[in-house]
Design a protein that fits this description.
Blueprint (H helix, E strand, L loop, with lengths): L1 E5 L4 H12 L3 E6 L2 H9 L3 E4 L5 H7 L5 E4 L12 H22 L5 E7 L24 H17 L2 E7 L1 E3 L4 H12 L4 E3 L9 E2 L1 E3 H14 L3 E5 L5 E2 H12 L6 E3 H8 L1 H8 L7 H7 L8 H15 L2 E4 L2 E4 L9
Parallel strand pairs: 1-2, 1-4, 2-3, 4-5, 5-6, 6-11, 7-10, 8-13
Antiparallel strand pairs: 9-12, 14-15
Helix pairs in contact: 1-7, 4-5, 6-8, 8-12, 9-10
Length: 333
């Protein structure tokens, strides 16, 4: 197949370009500079210059393809994101999909979008599936808007839409995962919990970025449409995730901190992401495609993350244990 991927140099996009190219597909990756072009080419893709926020550039960049994947985001990585940070992400997601479909929507068979499962987290914290009513907040508003746009426009343009709501991404080159690792080693990242003393933990749904790319490749090849949740096999708490990361790094167990104390520092959005439940399953997607995660639990995935950091020099081994190499930039696993 011929596939066009926005966000082709990101955590998901880079892996998807490589996976599809390895399977023999013609993969075009949207890039903005020479560094991005080199990255796409090194993964077997064909770079195309443009910007999702510049419709005229997309008219030149998007070739005749069968599948569009809108994986471009600008998710904030600041400890306390500003409104401007979130607005930038909104534009990349929402204006980006409008420009992309406006330029190429009539000529493609399918459009795929990586949404997030916590757009449908339930106010009472109960498990939910694809049929659950959404409850978007500031962090998920744009994901919900893209979901709505694709549902509204698929009939008018004649394409099938596949919305894959993913769990909380982690990977060796993910900015948030790297922030977690650096802070855990430094003893600066606490376990956030609800309640007066911070002892109440919420179950979250995670997903290794390699498994996300695998899921999109399977969705493309099996030609599924509709809405699916793509997460690993077992929801876990932030406490378990962070404690396991500390164990893998040989760092002391993180201390606990009530979410209400962290909120003034982290902001409401980040605090809610880590402390409000979002337990769901991959059952529907697995049944539809046969996909299975290579990292079925956070333990499997975090082991790979730390091994990769040790291999690429992100971690420096000393007699006292691992130290974070501040001069090392992220390398895709």
């Amino acid at each position: 197949m011929r596939v066009f991927v926005t966000g082709a140099t990101g955590v998901l996009g880079t892996r998807l370009v490589e996976r599809l190219a390895d399977r023999g597909h013609d993969v075009y990756g949207l890039v903005r500079d020479d560094e991005g072009a080199d990255r796409v080419e090194s993964r077997g893709g064909i770079p195309r210059r443009g910007d999702v926020l510049d419709r005229r550039s997309l008219e030149r960049a998007v070739p005749n393809v069968e599948v569009l994947v809108h994986a471009a985001t600008s998710i904030p990585t600041a400890t306390r994101p500003s409104e401007a940070d979130w607005e930038r992400n909104d534009r990349v997601r929402v204006d980006g999909i409008r420009n992309l479909v406006g330029v190429a929507g009539e000529g493609v068979d399918r459009v795929l979008f990586p949404s997030v499962v916590w757009v449908a987290r339930q106010p009472d914290g109960s498990p939910f599936d694809e049929s659950a009513k959404r409850s978007p907040d500031r962090t998920t508003r744009s994901a919900a808007a893209v979901e709505d746009f694709l549902r509204e426009r698929r009939s008018a343009f004649g394409f099938e839409a596949a919305i894959l709501r993913c769990g909380f991404f982690y990977a060796p080159d993910s900015a948030h995962t790297r922030q977690f690792g650096r802070s855990v080693l430094a003893g600066r990242l606490p376990i956030l919990g609800r309640g007066l003393l911070g002892r109440e933990d919420a179950r979250l749904s995670f997903l290794h970025a390699e498994d996300a790319a695998h899921a999109f490749a399977e969705a493309i090849e099996t030609e599924v449409g509709g809405l699916y949740h793509v997460v690993d096999d077992r929801p876990t708490t932030f406490a378990e995730f962070l404690t396991e990361l500390a164990d893998e790094l040989g760092a002391p167990p993180p201390r606990r901190l009530p979410a209400w104390l962290a909120r003034p520092v982290l902001g409401g959005e980040t605090t809610a992401l880590l402390t409000e439940p979002m337990p769901t399953t991959n059952d529907r997607f697995r049944d539809a495609t046969g996909w299975e995660p290579a990292y079925p639990t956070y333990r499997d995935g975090l082991r790979q993350v730390v091994e990769r950091w040790a291999e690429d020099g992100t971690l420096r081994e000393t007699p006292e244990g691992y130290r974070w190499n501040e001069g090392r930039t992220a390398a895709t696993a």
